[in-house]
User: What shape does this take?
Amino acid sequence: MKQKYNFLAFTALLVAVFATTYIATAYAAISSENDALAIASAQVSLTQAVTTAEQHVDGKAVRAEYEHHKGQWVFDVEVVKGKQVMDVKVDPISGRILSAVEDNTDHDDAHDKED
Assistant: This one.
């Protein structure tokens, strides 16, 4: 009888460990740090954010992503107009431009101009 009790206790412990692991994994998957799943709360699509950023700068988007920036989720769209590269942040709820700053780190350097 004692063996049966020990077996049941051990089984219950295993189930508890696996359930805790599963719940922790599921929580991590829906965590606000996971951009692939966090975008579900956005009311603006990536396409809309890109269009808004392109119109704001009057250029063409070359890269766009949904990222956590300064405590909030934003669409980060890199837009090129002529030789100027702009980093445009778009609010995922309202679709408004949060910021548009020149991104000097993406400018071509002398070594690449020959390519």
In short: Residues 83 and 108 are 9 Å apart (CA to CA). The chain has a mean pLDDT of 77. The domain at 41-106 is CATH 3.10.450.40 (Nuclear Transport Factor 2; Chain: A,).
